[in-house]
Amino acid sequence: MNTAARARERKEKPGPLEYMRQWPLRVTVIATLVFLYLPLITLMVFSFNDSRRNIVWQGFTFKYYEKAFNNASLMEAFGNSLTIAFVCTILSVILGALTAVMLWRFRFPGKTVVEGGMALPIVVPEICMGVAMLVFFARVMPWPQGMPWPFNLGAIIIAHTSFAFPFVATVVRARLASFNRELEEAAKDLGASEWRTFWDVLVPHMQPGLIAGALLAFTLSLDDFVITFFTAGPDTITFPVKVYSMLRFSVTPEVNAASTVLIVLTVALTAIGLHLQNRNEQKAKA
Amino acid sequence: MEQSWRQAKTAFAAIAVPPLVWLLLFFLVPLAVIWAYSFGENVGPVTIDLTGTFANYMRALEPLYLQIFWKSIIIAGLTTLLCLIIGFPVALAIAFASPRMKAWLLLLIMLPFWTNLLIRTFALIAVLRENGYINFTLEWLWNNASGLMTLLGLQPLGEFEPLTLLYNNFAVVVGLVYVHLPFMVLPLYSALDRMDRSLMEASLDLGAGHMRTILLVVVPLAAPGIASGVLITFIPALGAYLTPDLLGGTDSQMIANVIERQFKRANDWPFGAALSFLLMYLTFIAIAVQALVQRRGERRGT
Amino acid sequence: MTDAAPATPSNAPAPKAQPHVKDNAIIRFENITKRFGKVVAVDNVNLEIREGEFFALLGPSGCGKTTLLRMLAGFETPSEGRVLIDGKDVAPLPPNKRPVNMVFQSYAVFPHMKVADNVGYGLKMDGVDGGETKRRVEEALDLVKLGGFGDRMPDQLSGGQRQRVALARALVKRPRVLLLDEPLSALDAKLRDQMRSELTSLQEKVGITFIMVTHDQDEALAIATRCAVMNRGLLTQVATPSDLYEFPNSRFVADFVGSVNMFEGVLDKDEQDHAIVRAPELAAPVYLDHGVTGAKGSTVWVALRPEKIEMHKRAEGQAAMKMEDAPEGANVVPGIIRDIVYLGSETIFEVELDGGRRVKTFRSNLTRYDQEDFTWDEPVWLAWHACSPAVLLS
């Protein structure tokens, strides 16, 4: 659109349903976005501030990033979080995809019960799940102490996977709902076996759902505090748990720096995920 | 459409067994243990006897804890209401924005949701605390106003008293709204976006203004979406642990904080288990109410 | 507008007597242009609609007809120009303050309200009191033959009934103008025919100006008293249905309204009382019994409707037949039947001319044996009267 046309459109009176172009709603939207973003942006900006009191701008510095990167326990927590998220994503995508295919494909006795059971981890309050995991790993199935890294993270990985895979299942099942079963029949009609049909037709169709589900599982795991808080031992600290304990002692710009790194990481991941999804959609359209 | 499991028993087993076993072992069993503990008694520092007593539940119904439950419901309800009041116009504006703008706005609303909850809460602390940005801005305004008064030959204003915005119920509600707003906006948006626009146009055409159109046509038709938005805001707000823990004061403990204390500090697992299950029952009641609203909405043929 | 044929009475009174059509312009579009970004949806349209008319806006999808209608209702704002209702510029009026009501393409019946509440909605908005509302709602439902349906919910109604609710809901407000957006497009064929005649009689009964948008030329010809044909945002022709069909002013209108055989040619002779066009695809010159306002030697198009072409048997080597109203050798061309489509009431023949061009012609099956008269690959003459072709300059 050239500038003249744009200017003209701006001048034109908005239509009755163009709510976004009416000022009361525009103000609400802008105010909401400011409310959502201002704290995060100031947090990121002040991670570069050369002052401990970090309220007035004193000058630009990277020293808190240096400090954060030299803080061994913080870095270890960061590494733990990424490792847990990575393994949990793989497990959740596999289990979630299986769940989705099972519920989409088959008719079996007790299906509604299974559907309800799969929805439970999504709706049960985090705190309840957290204490259940605490008790489970303390009394029923104690995770062996002193395992080498990364096996010492097993309990947390299991707990994360338990609440993440039903989310993946929901996303993948929604994607499967748009599958045209005639494609499957066409593949079989052309001579493909059941197994080949699954890999050649169904899996490619599921792919955007799998990517979205993986992204969701990864962030859910990286984000989780409450359940980890109850499952983590003294030598299995994750990033949120570490930040939590740092906050309890004192607020230092080091936390700002570490948080900024995590925010940038999640935004980058989201961007990659959306990009992959867009590319897939465009490919599907072409 | 669906295939009977009998027609492909091996395939069904291969697909169904891993997730079902995982769900059973690593989710249902832990919950069942907690449920059993809620009828147990502490007999030693680490031993719990499953005596089948209802004492834990009776204790949970004492005024002290009942009050905390009630307070949690009020705070979660208030959070939900505020999210609805802010989220509805935002969702409305997004649903009727141009396609390009819509994609960007949705991304902007969703992005904080992908950001770590702890970091977001921490960011809010920096804004709200006594020497935080809000008080800093207010102080600056105050001092300027005071200076202006002196310039005009009037009595200067007194010393600036910073507002106490943190470690109280206010901060908890602000924090919960901050965290849960995207949960409300997205279902509202999808309900409004799906709605047949000609219905709104018909209402305008027949002489209703925007307010009446929204009240008489949009809200009733978007009721299922509103109900699901309310539910997915209310449930996590009711069970919130981190926000009241970090932003609240001594009197703004919510039910999750009490549960945590039983498990981590007071070491009274049976009582904590009973509280957990009461919280879960409350959650299920909320879901049931929502399902009822949803069904009524569907019956209306929307 | 350039009129090719001499007698294009597009502004002459319609053949049918219409006592309820008055002379005043109830709607006036003045230099209306609407842009959506770069796209020009409506391009400098000037149009007057008289009180009491049943007016149709006709055109292919995306021609701007719906945009024009929505500007009347207030759902779109013109980029340029003015919309006047009863001589007053309605630009400052929001949709809920305009004296027009609309029947939506999807009917837009509120699914959460009873039929009576749907119909009474507009009256409630106007603050009409309960008793009066009840009376008028019943009256309106009777008018659309839905008496006694007031307590039903919309999902208990058929598509046709829902449309009647939408009609009643708009009419009960006694608007100055009723707008109908593709009113019949969602109905099945049988119901559509029935609704056509009902809409006409309803309009005569209530005496309100109706403006209908449609892409279906049959519908426009059957219902409207006057039609405007639009193409790519431009108003192409405004005329009565019969004038649109018999005296189209452009290739677009001739082609869009009805079916047509179009031949490009050169204007060879243009006198007061006759004209001759030579088309390379036709072996014979086209003789017309009237003059054409065009420069000699200019390119023109001859439009021949299939039903206006006669077909006669031809033997090899036989001399060309002669049309009584044209000179020797004009308006008659030889050809061979290549395709026959039997439709029952009539048969469509596709005849290949000498140059390879195929021409369509209809023959009514006047007796039960008519369809046996002609067969595949049979040589025939195609002939037409001097007053049948329309000569188009654009």
Description:
The complex is a heterotrimer of chains A (286), B (302) and C (394). Chain A is mainly alpha-helical. In chain A, 75% of the residues lie in helices and 1% in strands. Chain B has helices spanning 9-37, 55-60, 63-95, 99-114, 117-128, 133-151, 169-194, 197-205, 210-221, 223-238, 242-247, 255-264, 269-299; strands at 3-4, 41-42, 48-49. The longest helix of chain B is centred in the first third of the chain and has 33 residues, at 63-95. Chain B is flat. The two termini of chain B are 25 Å apart. Chain C has two domains: 25-99 and 175-254, 3-Layer(aba) Sandwich (Rossmann fold), CATH 3.40.50; 259-392, OB fold (Dihydrolipoamide Acetyltransferase, E2P), CATH 2.40.50.140. In chain C, strand 4 and strand 5 (88-89) form a beta hairpin. In chain C, helix 2 crosses helix 3 (130-143), helix 2 packs parallel to helix 4 (159-171) and helix 3 (130-143) packs across helix 4. Chain C starts with 24 loop residues before the first strand and ends with a strand. Chains in contact: A-B, A-C, B-C. At the A-B interface, helix 2, helix 4, strand 1, helix 5 and helix 6 of A face strand 1, helix 1, helix 3, helix 4 and helix 5 of B.
